[in-house]
Design a protein that fits this description.
With 121 residues, the protein is mostly helical. The protein has helices at residues 3-15, 19-26, 30-38, 47-54, 58-62, 68-74, 78-88, 92-119.
Length: 121
């Protein structure tokens, strides 16, 4: 796999985006974007948009800058990094428990936020 294809896949996954979502952002089909990630086509006309979406330079996407993504990851809040490291060290069962708990807390907060908004109307 070429460096551009590899980096596009890595950046997309790091952002938690599907190929379809990236393609929609670019205004192209998912299969056209897939060609960027499998190396059969270069994103020459879409480089600027991709760099904006992923928060990196076009040089990084093209493989001319080796450290930008790693530097961006390093700049993430240290508490979040610590939590991610803990999560990654969990067993599959532990990860399931965290995911269930997070989903429940998120849903409670979302419902609370909706009821707060409704009461202010």
């Amino acid at each position: 796999m070429d460096i551009t294809a590899y980096r596009l896949r890595r950046l997309r996954k790091a952002k938690g985006l599907s190929q379809k979502k990236v393609a929609e952002y670019l205004g192209i089909t998912r299969s056209a974007y897939n060609q960027y990630e499998n190396g059969s086509s270069k994103p020459v006309r879409r480089l600027e948009e991709l760099s904006n979406l992923f928060g990196v330079t076009t040089d990084y996407i093209l493989g001319k800058d080796e450290t930008e993504f790693e530097n961006n990851v390093t700049n993430v809040d240290s508490q979040i990094q610590s939590q991610v490291q803990k999560y990654l060290g969990l067993s599959d069962t532990g990860k399931d428990i965290v995911n269930i708990t997070l989903d429940a807390v998120y849903e409670r907060e979302r419902k609370s936020s909706k009821s707060d908004q409704a009461s202010t109307l």
